[in-house]
Specification:
With about 450 residues, this protein is α+β, with helices and mostly antiparallel strands. The chain is built from 11 helices and 20 strands. Helices cover about 30% and strands about 25% of the residues. Its EC number is 6.3.5.-.
Length: about 450
């Protein structure tokens, strides 16, 4: 409770701090810290978050075989292989209306309350593009240092599913809004730290499908019936496709966490994985170290946290290595992560591009942007997480402090505006905050 009171004090000066990870721990500790922008006067209640929320390495469940090397050393089975990991991330945009109609884009509404002939796919209904979707796509593309297309278009992606009433999804295929970018990641200090740069293949705009609710079970298997909620149908998405440059579950989880920070800093999405506002599909294959050719790709879905993503990848790496060691073939398929059993299970065979039968969307014109519009959007971008971390480092902060402070834009804003409010006597000095919080150690 004391930790929440600390955060409420910050909220009282106009900063909405929702550092859920810290609050869930319930053990925020305060100490005096020299911070950026003259904030050496303020106490830092978030320093213990990084140490208390460390990810513990997942133990390897599969059989680990060894073989003798010429020098007398042994080599484990895992040492013979490396993973090739890419991530497709769907970011649900925080627009007030859907992508192609005026229905509200709200989470938690009554089922099928936010629907109209357009998002229900009724005959004769025509889509109209929401300009805020394009603006969000340009912002994210610029933040990823990607090339923004002055002309892009929408396409129809054909596939049948009960929660897709039109029988196709409006997406972008060969000319996306942005492509060839990258994202910079600082790995946690407790795992050795280090800096990584991962390429981003493309960012494209599309609409979401509806949602199936399976009665009696969390998934289709074992359910007595299924119901369709079309509130989510037509909600705008940005799909971010990474290059297959990650090699461990930790790198993949940190890439996704950095992308979440980026969309929150930009203000285009809340990025909440629990609500489905950010969904990550992981593509993973295994190959012997030193080989350039990729192995058979397996897609993993249904991961609603970064720790689940890391565990799912590590399980799948173990599973695929065990199959290769036993001389079996890896099937190209989509698998689901089951949190309860801590394993992936087969869902369906993986579709290929030809199955989608893409063709240009005839009901929407091209998206045409001017260079002036792009330059204006770039000039109005906020300071992004990586730039903030570099600035904090230049001020002499340790990497541990830097990662904690820059993790949340509201937290870093409070840290930086505190001296101004303190000097104006709008908020109390640090020792009074400690007394009010009742959290002095």
């Amino acid at each position: 409770m004391a930790s929440w009171r600390c955060l409420e004090l910050a909220r009282g000066v106009g900063t909405s701090i929702l550092f859920r990870e810290a609050a869930a721990l319930g053990s925020l500790k305060w100490k005096r810290t020299a911070t950026a922008a003259g904030a050496s006067q303020i106490t830092n209640c978030l320093h213990s978050v990084a140490s208390n929320s460390k990810r513990e390495p997942r133990p390897v469940k599969t059989r680990v075989m060894t073989q003798e090397r010429g020098s007398g050393e042994t080599q484990t089975t895992a040492d013979k292989y490396e993973a090739v990991i890419g991530i497709e991330t769907h970011v649900q945009l925080g627009t007030s209306t859907k992508a192609f109609c005026s229905c509200p884009s709200e989470y938690g509404s009554e089922p099928n309350a936010n629907v109209c002939p357009v998002c229900m796919g009724l005959p004769g209904a025509l889509p109209v593009l929401n300009a805020a979707v394009v603006e969000s796509g340009v912002k994210l593309g610029l933040a990823l240092q990607a090339n923004i297309a002055l002309k892009s278009k929408f396409d129809r992606k054909q596939y049948f599913y009960p929660d897709l009433p039109k029988g196709y999804q409006i997406s972008q295929f060969d000319i996306p809004i942005a492509e060839k970018g990258y994202i910079d990641v600082d790995l946690p200090v407790e795992f050795g730290g280090g800096h990584r740069r991962f390429g981003v293949t493309r960012v494209h705009m599309e609409e979401d499908a509806g949602k199936l609710i399976h009665a009696g079970n969390d998934r289709l298997s074992g359910s007595s019936s299924s119901q369709v909620d079309l509130n989510r149908a037509g909600v705008p998405l940005l799909e971010v496709v990474s290059e297959p440059e990650m090699r461990t579950g930790l790198e993949a989880a940190e890439y996704a966490a950095e992308l979440q920070r980026m969309v929150r800093y930009l203000g285009i999405s809340n990025g909440n994985m629990q609500e489905g506002s950010m969904r990550c599909d992981v593509n993973i294959s295994i190959r012997p170290k030193g080989r350039e050719q990729f192995g058979t790709k397996v897609e993993i879905k249904n991961m609603n946290s970064f720790s689940a993503m890391q565990k799912a990848i590590e399980f799948e790496m173990d599973r695929q290595i065990a199959l290769l060691e036993e001389g079996e073939r890896i099937k190209q398929e989509t698998r689901l992560w089951e949190e309860g059993s801590q394993q992936t299970i087969s869902m369906r065979s993986k579709e290929g591009l030809a199955d989608y039968r893409y063709f240009p969307e005839p009901d929407l014109p091209e998206v045409v942007l001017s260079q002036e519009y792009i330059d204006t959007t770039r000039a109005n971008l906020p300071e992004l997480p990586d730039a903030k971390r570099r600035r904090y480092e230049s001020l002499g902060l340790s990497m541990q402090d830097t990662l904690v402070l820059a993790n949340d834009s509201d937290v870093s804003l409070f840290i930086e505006i505190y001296p101004m409010f303190y000097s104006l006597q709008i908020i109390p000095k640090p020792i009074e905050i400690l007394l009010l919080a009742g959290n002095i150690k």
